[in-house]
Amino acid sequence: MNAKEIQFLSMRSMKIDKSELMFDNKFLKSLIIPLLVETLLSVTIGLMDTIMVSGVGEHAVSGVSLIDSISALFIFLFSAFATGGAVVASQYLGKGEPENARYSAKQLMYLSISFSVLVSVLLFIFRRQVLNLVYGSIEENVMDAALVYFEPILISFPFLAVLNSANALFRSMGKSRITMIVSIIMNVINVSGNYILINIVGLGTLGAGIASLASRMVACFYMVYKVTRTSEVIHIEEPLKFDLSIPMINRVLKVALPSGIENSMFHIGKILISSTVASFGTASIAANAVFNSVSTMSNIPGSAIGMASVTVIGQCCGAGKTDQAEYYGRKLMALTYMMMGVTCTLIFIAARPLAEMYNLSETAEALAIYSTRLNMIQTVLVWPLAFTLPNYLRAAGDARFTMFVSVASMWVFRVMLSIVLGKMLGIGFIGVCWGMFIDWYCRAIFFVIRFLKGKWKTKRVV
Where does 136-195 have alpha helices with state H? Predict the structure, then answer.
C-alpha cells in the first residue's frame, strides 16, 4: 500500500469537531449491520441457485452461470437508477427538504418501472438470439438449461427494479433494518422454493428460476406497501396519481445515467469475458461459476459499507458539510479493510470445502479452488479502494468521473488483457483472472487520487 493510500486510511490528519458530527457510532452501527446481513442474503440467493441445481449436473451449473452473467448487466442498470434516486433523496434530506425527497422518490419509481418492463419484454422475445449472440457455440445441454432458467428471471425484472428502488429510498433515510427484513423474506422463499421445485418436483433449472421469481415478487409487494405509507419521511405520495417532473428526473439521471453507463459497460465487458471463458470448455465455465459465487462473499463488507456511504456522505454533502463527508469516508474505508480482511482469510481457508459443495469434475474443482484463493489475496489488498471508494464519489455527485475511470479501465485492462493472457498466451481462465486484478489496481489509483484532491467536494446534485 503506497503513502497516499496510507494517508487515506489514517484518521489523524482530519481536524473535525466531533461534537458537531451528523452521525454517531450508534447510527452507523444501526445502518451498517442490517446492510451486512442484507448483502449476505442477496449473495446467498444466487449462490443457492447455483448450488442447488448442481445435483442436476455440471451443464445446469454452467447454464445458470451464463444467465446470471447476462442478468447482472440489467440488474446493475436497475441499481443505477436506485442509486441515483437515493443520492438525490439523501441530499435533499441533508438539505432539510423532505418534500423534495418524496417528490424525487416518485420520479425514481417512474424510471424504474418503465425501463425494467421495456428490458424484460425485449429480452423475453429475443432470448435465444441474445444467448447465441453473446456466447456463440456452446454445448446444447448447457444452452437448454440456460434458456429454461432465463424465462422466469426475465419476468422477475420489473419486480426487482421496483424492489431495488424502494430499498434504496429506505437506506437514504437510514432505515436499513427494513431492507434486511425483506432480504430475509426473499431468501426463505428462494431456498424453500428451490428445494421443493428442484428436488421434489424435479423442475431443474426452471425450478430455480421460478423460486427466484416468487421471492422477488413477494419482496416487491411488501416494499411497495412500506414505501407508500405516509408515516415514512420519504414515501410515494398519491401513487396512483401520475405526476411527472422532468427537472426532478434529470436530477436523478445526473447520477443514474453515468452510473448506468458505467455498470452496463462493466457488465458487457464481463459478459464478453464470460464468452472467452466459455471457449475454454465446460470445466472453466463451471469453475468461473464457483469463482463468482463464492468470491462475491468476500466483498460483502465492502458492498454493504458502499451502500451505507450513499446515506452518510449524501446527507453530509446535501447539508454542505463536505469535511464531515471526508471524515466519514476515511472512517468507513478503515472499517471496510478490517472486515474484508476477516472474510478473505476465512474464504481462503475454506476454498476447498466450498468448491466441493458444487459437485464438479476434478479438473473444474481444482481450478475453482486455485482461482478463489488467488482472488482472496488480491481482494484484501485493493478491492475496497476500487469498488467501495467510488460510492463515496457518486454520493457527492461525482458520478461522471467514476464512469470514465471504470469504463476505460474495464475495457483497456480487464477485457483486452483477458483475451491476451487467456487466449493469445494460452494461460486460460487464470489469465482472465489476472486481467481483472490489474483492472482493480488501475481503478484504485485514480479513485484514491480523486478523493484526496477533494474535487468531488465541489459537485452539486440538488
Answer: 140-172, 176-194
418 Cα distance to chain centroid: 22
Give the model confidence (pLDDT) of 416-427 as tens digits.
888 898 888 888
CA atoms of 191 and 161, how far apart (whole Å): 21
Distance CA(157)–CA(172), nearest Å, equals: 23
- Asked if residues 148 and 189 have their Cβ atoms less than 8 Å apart, the reply is no
Contact assessment for residue 344 and residue 266, using Cβ atoms and an 8 Å cutoff: no
Residue 161: per-residue pLDDT: 94
Work out the mean pLDDT of the chain and round it to a whole number: 87
Q: What are the DSSP calls for 249-276, one per residue?
A: HHHHHHHHHHHHHHHHHHHHHHHHHHHH
Helix (H) or strand (E) holding 130: helix 127-135
Half-sphere exposure of 56 (CA within 13 A, CB side): 31
Segment 270-274 mean pLDDT: 77
For the record, the C-alpha cell of 7 comes out as: 494517508
Write out the three cell numbers for 390. Answer: 467510488
d(CA 396, CA 326): 10
pLDDT digits 0-9 by tens, 290-305: 887 777 888 999 999 9
- CA distances 308 to 79, 181, 434, 457, Å, are 14, 16, 30, 18
Residue 117 vs residues 3, 76, 110, 243: alpha-carbon distances, Å: 48, 15, 11, 19
CA separation for the pair 322, 303 (Å, rounded): 22
- Report the share of the chain in percent with pLDDT over 70: 94
C-beta atoms surrounding 355 within 10 Å: 24
d(CA 323, CA 15): 9
Confidence label for 8 from pLDDT (cuts 50, 70 and 90): low
What is the Cα–Cα distance from 164 to 403, expressed in whole angstroms? 21
Q: Which 8-state DSSP code applies to residue 195?
A: I
Write the Ramachandran bin of 361: left for phi over 0, alpha for psi from -120 to 50, otherwise beta: beta
5 pLDDT higher than 60 = no
Indicate whether 198 pLDDT > 60: yes
| Residue 214, helix vs strand vs coil | helix
Q: Which of 61-75, 350-364, 379-393 has the lowest mean pLDDT?
A: 61-75
- The residue among 20, 11, 9, 19 whose CA lies nearest residue 321 is 20
Per-residue pLDDT for 13 more than 60? Answer: no
- Contact criterion met (CB below 8 Å) for 285 and 277: yes
Q: How far is the C-alpha of 261 from the C-alpha of 258, rounded, in Å?
A: 5
